[in-house]
């Protein structure tokens, strides 16, 4: 079967300039989009950080930079699409901000990309996930491989999935750049069906540049096209279309 070479949908990117620790300016943003496009990405969700008192940039400013960038991107690549979201660092009260529209869901859907601190205790993470679910949203846990109290416990991974959380891993972790053991475990969880999305979490054109190829090189050796398609095209498409997975 022929390899899948494009049509990828990246649901986790920090590509909007000036709003978080992602793209430093619009030239960097465009370069990131060039890099992603060349690797077969055709749709992205821009997910600037939202964190109380740290990254709580006014939505008007985010919208302004987002639409400027989107216009430029589509001019260069007519078949490229961009959507807006946020990567929401969980704290008590953020659910009210999602409900009020102060924080973006993923492309206006019921999916919310959630972030925690790497060392957060499991009980807190579970409560955060349930908080979002109880408000009627569908949480996607961003780079789940970072949370030791989730990722290192199959029971906890299982429980979070059972209550309704979805799991995203970073493409660089798949490629082994997050360390050998972490990479191996990411692949194991993919094989066992625990992972719903692979996304780049790209922040720059340097060390945190969008990486699809490195990840595909590993995936193609280990998995069939259907698995790759599900993680990088089909499930992300369902997020954008606000459909259940
Ligand atoms: Fe991120």
Task: Give a quick rundown of the structure.
By secondary structure, this protein is α/β, with parallel strands linked by helices.
Number of helices: 10
Number of domains: 1
- Terminal CA distance: 25 Å
How much of the polypeptide forms β-strand, as a percent range? 15-25%
Notable characteristics:
single chain, 245 residues, TIM Barrel, six-stranded parallel sheet, three-stranded parallel sheet, 10 helices, binds fe (ii) ion
Could you describe the 3D structure shown?
By secondary structure, this protein is α/β, with parallel strands linked by helices. It has a single domain, classed as TIM Barrel, CATH 3.20.20.140. It is 44% helix and 16% strand. The chain has ten helices and nine strands. It has helices spanning 26-38, 59-76, 94-100, 122-134, 148-151, 154-163, 171-174, 180-191, 213-222, 225-240; strands at 8-13, 41-46, 49-50, 81-84, 87-89, 111-115, 138-141, 166-170, 197-199. The strands form two sheets. The chain has a six-stranded parallel sheet with strand order 3-5-6-7-8-9. A three-stranded parallel sheet has the order 1-2-4. Strand 5 (87-89), helix 3 and strand 6 (111-115) form a beta-alpha-beta unit. The longest helix has 18 residues, at 59-76. The protein is globular. The model has no long low-confidence stretch (mean pLDDT 97). Residues 12, 14, 87, 142, 201 line the site of fe (ii) ion (FE2).
